[in-house]
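TL;DR need structure tokens for one chain.
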Amino acid sequence: MNWTWVVDHLPALPEIVLLVGVSALMIYDAGSKDPRRTGTYVGAQLILAACLAATSFVLWGSGGGRLVIFEGLFVADLMGHVLKIVSYGAVWAALVFSRRYLLDRGLLRGEFVTLMLFALLGTMVLISANSFLTVYLGLELMSLCLYAMVALDRDSPLATEAAMKYFVLGALASGLLLYGLSMIYGATGVLTLSEVSLRLGTLAGNVADQRFLAFGLVFVVAGIAFKLGVVPFHMWIPDVYHGAPTPVTLVIGSISKLAAFAMAVRLLVNGMFPLAHDWQQMLALLALLSMAIGNITAIAQSNIKRMLAYSAIANMGFLLLGLLSGVVGGNGRNAVDAYSTALFYAITYVVMSVGAFGMVLLLARAGFEADNLDDFRGLNRRSPWYAFLMMLLMLSLAGLPPTVGFYAKLAVLQSAVAAGQLWLAVAAVVLSLVGAFYYLRIVKLMYFDDARDTQPIVAGLGFRILLSVTALLVLLLGLSPGWVMAGCLKAIQSL
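>> reply
TL;DR here they are.
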């Protein structure tokens, strides 16, 4: 055996472990006769544990350094390791939270587990992408799996309609991204992101090339904006969140956001940093529109999944606020601080999103979805503990102390002010106050209204423990966010 080849490719060990594990799991499930899919369920968790061990091994072996393999196509750095570990946690939570829901509806099939793990594989490839080719490969692998997962409930007209909308609009967005990348490639002649950045620096004085690059950059930003789900590329978010089975919505609201954030950092920061002046202006408009339309439209929603969809749009606007605050007047001294706050915001949003959809899954039962706001009426009388957990999650999403949502928003606003984006920071604060209404409305329904549903809340021990840990985590991180923020700062410094 060529041990040199093995050592040289160790940075891709987590992806290799996941690919081999999912392939074996798919073969096992094809011959399984167990309607509860216990073996597939346990196998998926073992694969995630193996991926975590592989990522930890690569991180320990590299000492947190940056490793590039496959002729520059793949990069393993601290930011990638952090995002992958958070992705494992989100998928593991989705498995635990969704098992009873899917069993009650006859949807717990091997396709759900394998598609989710292949979507995770696409996310990991996208997180470690160091070339236009790898970016597109990871994006399409993740997206195709998510399209199929949305249509998992074939008897549901809502799910079928949502899947078709997601597929058609997703294909359009992928085409826009690919067209933009092809134009950047045409101007620079290279595919590797680090080489693209160097070539862009040499083209700074050529007016014709600058116009051509700006035109291509518009399409790239449009593709990234669609995957993040920001205005005006947000049309798919409410329908897909509402129409997809709730476990699938949980996956879309977590790992796909991490993947989109990683794509934005890899393409815009790693690859097109010399064009920061151009793409920051685009992101500023997208951020403002997203925070405005997301927060205002969410007020009118009576379905909690649609409300959380518009909440996601508004939160992604805040995320963009961190990304656009890195460069001021051509000076990138604020870049590391700004991008680390955006990374921190992305991670904390995923934790809050997983917890919120976990609560929706907790209240659902056979023949009952619990996806309307009225389904949370009087929850405090039914279960004071779960009402307290949901209150923590809503306060955190609203950005109120002492939860981590407050610190995440504060950190992003501080970066924006430091970058001279005072007007945008003020607009973000005002729109956050508007958005606080629909989060606090749920708290009001739980604590001050009479219960319409008196059915006992039934959940397994693992479900209850994981949901409690997730919700309490937003409080603990809010009380002590420094160590996570320091880790995010170190991760961005590794780029």
